Amino acid sequence: MKVLYSVEMKNITKRFSDTVANDSVNFSVKKGEIHSLLGENGAGKTTLMKTLYGMYQPNEGEIFINGHKEKIENPAKAISLGIAMVHQHFMLVEPLTAAENVVLGYEPKKGMFFNLDKAREEVTQISEKYGLKVDPLEKVEDLPVGAKQRLEIIKGLYRKADILILDEPTAVLTPLEVEDLFKVLRKLKEAGKTIILITHKLKETMEIADRVTVLRSGTIVYTAEKTETSPEKLAEMMVGRKVSFEVKKNPVEHEKKTVLELKKACYSKNKVKILNELSLNIKSGEILGLAGVEGNGQTEVIEALTGLIPLEKGEILLQGERITDLSPIKRIKAGIGHIPEDRNKRGLVEDFSIKENLILGYHRKSDFCRKGILKNNNIAKFASKIRTQFNIKTVDVDTEAAALSGGNQQKIVIGRVLSQEPKVIIAAQPTRGVDIGAIEYIHNKLMEMKEAGKAILLISAELDEIMKLSDRIAVIYEGQIVAEDEADNFDEYKLGALMTGSK
Amino acid sequence: MKKLLKFIYKTDLLFSLAAFILALLISGIIISLSGYSPWEAYVTMTAGAFGSPNAVAKTLAKATPLIFTGLAVAFSFKGGLFNIGAEGQLYMGGFAAALVGIYVQGLPGILHLFLAVVAAGIVGGLWSTIAGYLKIKRGTHEVIVTIMLNYIAIFLTNYFVSYPFKAEGMIPRTEELPASLQLTRLLPHSQLTTGLLMGIAFALIVAWFMKNTVYGYEIKAMGFNQDAAEAGGVNLKRGILLTMFISGFLAAMAGVTEVLGVHGYFIKGFSPGYGYDGMAVAVMGRNNPLGVVVSAILFGALRSGGMLLDRVTDIPGDFVVIIQALVIIFIATPAIIKKVMKKKERRQGNGN
Amino acid sequence: MKKIVACLLCLMMVLSLTVGCGQKAAQDNAEDGNAEEATAKIGVVLGIGGLGDKSFNDNGYAGIVRAKDELGIAFDYVEPKDLAEFETYHREFSQDGQYDLIIGLGFDQADAIKKVAQEFPEQKFLLIDGVVEAPNVASAIFKDYEKACLIGAFAGQVTKTNKVGVVGGMDIPLINAFVAGYQAGAKYINSDAEVLVNYVGAWKDPNTAKEMAISMYDKGADIVLQAAGGSGLGVFSAAEEKDKYAIGADVNQNALSPDHIVVSAVRRLDNVIYDQIKKVVDGNWESGVFNLGLKEEAVSYALEDSNIEMPQEYIDKVEELKAKIIAGELVIPNKIEDVDKFLTDNK
Ligand SMILES: Nc1ncnc2c1ncn2[C@@H]1O[C@H](COP(=O)(O)OP(=O)(O)OP(=O)(O)O)[C@@H](O)[C@H]1O
Ligand SMILES: [Mg+2]
């Protein structure tokens, strides 16, 4: 019997001025399957999907939808062909309600007027059918990330999509939300929808996908049924060599000394206590993992330590010296390295070149400037060095950071801090949106740093990551540390319980 | 050559040029709908702007203050601030220059000139810094404060020049400045002075400053992404003050070249809105210092062309204002949309 | 992309149409200009406020139009928006080299004319209402205090409250001369009259002028003179609002508010300008300072167009006064500080 393909992309080549993002790619998706698209950062996944969705025009190649050759000039055309795409940065209009967002551009009308009731009804219908919980009358700006994502999916379904593209949907979700999402995806599959899922997490691929395709440097290197492959095989295909998932936790021999100390920190926002007499000890030669559900004060811990918010009460000591009132730049200079949790907000200046981003925070160092004049030659040399060292994929270091793939942007942030020999590293979500090759690299780097005697605070939404890397784990819940112990004394269940406040 | 093309491409100058031409086309339609001949209008304007050495001189003379106010606005944009107060700053600066010129005596010419220029810059800079100061202390938006400061500056200098510092005669103006202080005219009988060269020099300095100094780097970082700049150790408060000061300093230079160059004294109402036009110039120049010079000259041409239009035809020279407004709309609207979209993306987390 | 191309095509079409018309218009214009053999070419730099001020500029412009109609001259004019533009415009006209006379309306053009006249010694200039002493400049000034005195005499007779007001444009000698004449006339005729004085500080700010007039009416004045150029229109709306009397200035403004304006002091800029242009056409133009008053019919008053009947006895008294001034029997003060002396001298 002839297999029915929902999507066939044949010989697709897409070039950006100097980069070939997709190189004669042949990619096909069977009707009714969940197809996982894997690949390193910058492999061309997003580009390929944007091409399918009509946001980019391929330089070469053709696209068949349900067996018919189609020219997809723009997203509107894609939508009319039943294709929907959920971007990682959502395309929602913040001040409008959920229902209004869903019907935007395809509004139900009563005579000449917008029919709000009808809109709400339809949204509720879809949301009940697939278990996509969203309050249709809530304003989008008030919705949490998970709900925004569900809303994007509803939007696609409202427009009668049969083919759903999800670009790294899980990167912003908590483990619980991921489970919910997968339930929805299974229901959609039952309903006969075709789903393309981009992710960096092989665990997720193995859990939900029917088939897998791996992209590397813009070409397809592997396609297989899920049942016929393994995470190890996939990782090898993505990176082009064997990848070890294990990090060796070498306990550090020499004595551990407290380097950075947070003492009884209090902070409130809009009269709500966010940090409540919170204390932390970060020691040399040790990774302290801070586990917790997002929104329990992690962000404020990071910002307090780096000097971005003032404490109401409490103290911060660096090697015994009080730094509570030092400005951010002085703390950076004193050796506190910061990998911000939100790279697009705090981590990167997207309109800056890679080169300029790589010195941000260290731009006043004598290596980079003398008497207020930048040493542009030194900076360029330094940037090229970091680029090779951290394998940042780009044409040159003068490219704007905005043109890089997400993972490569993260490498800039990491490379910047790690190259400056800080005493303490505050690593918040260091591997968010980063491919497994890079994850491995970053993890190894962090271990290396630890072995070199640095003190590291690791904040991550990924329990796996925390468990794998940390020597000690502290659990944060509602602005307090509710448990702190050697990592070996925790397991996933115990952590989960502590994080959600049940003992 | 390739480098030049790349520069034009990178700075979107082509886009600006397209917007300019589009604005001319649409104004043409408006002119003809108003019952005049666009052909006659544009022929006359071109003649008025470039038709003779005198016309070119006039265009460049009109462009001179616009270079400075354009630079001032562009500079504040770079730092993510919006200095609408160039008009007030140039009055304050111009007045300071006039006072130093008239009342400081016994200095050798060059030193005297230098002092007048620096005093003007500092006064204009401090005037604009008030808005920066209120922003960091009270969180008031610099747009509002700079606008209000415009009124204060204009009325204050009006008062000064109408009463305490008024020269003999019927007109609210100061004494004539000593000849040693007046900028040299590049063409006899024209209003084109060495102020133009000063403007170009300042544009080069600003470009160099942005590219090669830590301060320029920090200001740009702040302008593109305040949060990231803050995390990167940029002192936002100092950055805001510095940006506003330099921006005001640049705007004040427009007052200097008018007072020391065109008029030779401070006269009430000497700026027909150069400060406001600076915004259009900056937008069209894409906030790029050299782009600002080019667009200032284009706007100067519009002005001098408009004057001939006024003089020899029935077509009101005010059509020039329509052209300017259209240019801003065509350039600014897409730019603003782009910016808003970008901000939104940023807020909504990681791109990938 | 296609859309853009389509749009551009549309634009091109529309434009080609308009350009078509345009060329025709240009030709029309050329025909206009076929009055090429104009007897003289005049450049006019109007005062700030421009045409439509129903006052200074409109009055001057009337003289030029009359010269065009009767003497066959051609002229170009500009309407500067700010003081600082005067010099630029005079320079432009001069550089052009084809203007037989450049007229500047308003004392505030004196500096500009002085500077430019020096640089272009061959160019003839006429300054209205100000003085520049240069071999190529004629300056026409007005004995405004003479007409102000007549107006004051009207006001002094019309008032029932013995309080009259004047709203001046700016606190400058020119306006103060006017105020002085007004005071002298009012008190000369009516020794009980009190004169309220205030200045707007701007020539194009009717709102402030209105506020000032209202406050004068509130203080008991029942007739107010405007001496504030474009701002003066505010005085009339105040008079309408309060239903009191007002007096116009510069040109006959009676028609603006015929139920409230009783009389207007008028300058005949048109006469002066026409005379000067005529001299240019006739070839006997001279530079110098010309001080023009009642005698030269450069200033006067106007009662026409007002709905308020002026009693004949009032008019007779004013005419009597006028005759004395022309005859030189009375010398009207042009400084406020000289008013008292004038009154004691002429009891
Ligand atoms: N708009 C663009 N302009 C120039 N180059 C681009 C643009 N978008 C992507 N690229 C380049 O194309 C390549 C592929 O990028 P793409 O975003 O498709 O990667 P990705 O596989 O989605 O990576 P990630 O997992 O990091 O999101 C990268 O080298 C990137 O720098
Ligand atoms: Mg991607």
CATH class of the largest domain in chain C: Alpha Beta
* Relevant CATH superfamily of the largest domain in chain A: P-loop containing nucleotide triphosphate hydrolases
Major pleated sheet of chain C: 6 strands, parallel
Share in β-strands of chain A: 25-35%
Number of helices of chain A: 17
Which architecture of the largest domain in chain A does the CATH hierarchy give at level 2?
Answer: 3-Layer(aba) Sandwich
Structural class of chain C: alpha/beta
Biggest interface pair, counts: A-B, 49 and 30 residues
Number of domains of chain A: 2
| Average predicted local confidence, pLDDT of chain C | 86
Task: Please report the total strand number of chain A as a whole number.
Answer: 24
Question: What is the CATH H-level superfamily of the largest domain in chain C?
Answer: Response regulator
Mean pLDDT, all residues of chain A: 88
Order of helices and strands of chain C: HEHEHEHEEHEHEHEHEEHEEHH
Write the layout of secondary structure elements.
The complex is a heterotrimer of chains A (503), B (352) and C (347).
Chain A: E1 5-16, E2 19-30, E3 34-39, H1 45-52, E4 60-65, E5 68-70, H2 75-80, E6 83-86, H3 98-103, E7 109-110, E8 113-114, H4 116-130, H5 145-158, E9 163-167, H6 175-190, E10 194-198, H7 202-208, E11 211-216, E12 219-225, H8 231-239, E13 258-269, E14 272-283, E15 286-291, H9 298-306, E16 313-318, E17 321-322, H10 328-334, E18 336-339, H11 343-347, H12 354-358, E19 369-370, E20 373-374, H13 376-389, H14 406-418, E21 424-428, H15 436-451, E22 455-459, H16 463-469, E23 472-477, E24 480-486, H17 492-499
Chain B: H1 2-10, H2 13-33, H3 38-50, H4 53-78, H5 86-103, H6 109-138, H7 142-162, H8 195-212, H9 214-224, H10 226-231, H11 236-263, H12 274-284, H13 289-312, H14 319-347
Helix pairs in contact in B: 2-3, 2-14, 3-4, 3-13, 4-8, 4-11, 4-12, 4-13, 5-6, 5-7, 5-11, 5-12, 6-7, 6-11, 8-9, 8-11, 8-13, 9-11, 12-13, 12-14, 13-14
Chain C: H1 2-32, E1 41-45, H2 56-71, E2 74-78, H3 85-96, E3 101-105, H4 110-119, E4 125-128, E5 137-142, H5 144-158, E6 163-168, H6 173-189, E7 194-199, H7 206-218, E8 223-227, H8 233-242, E9 245-248, E10 261-267, H9 269-282, E11 288-292, E12 299-302, H10 312-327, H11 339-345
Parallel strand pairs in C: 1-2, 1-3, 3-4, 4-5, 5-11, 6-7, 6-8, 8-9, 9-10
Antiparallel strand pairs in C: 10-12
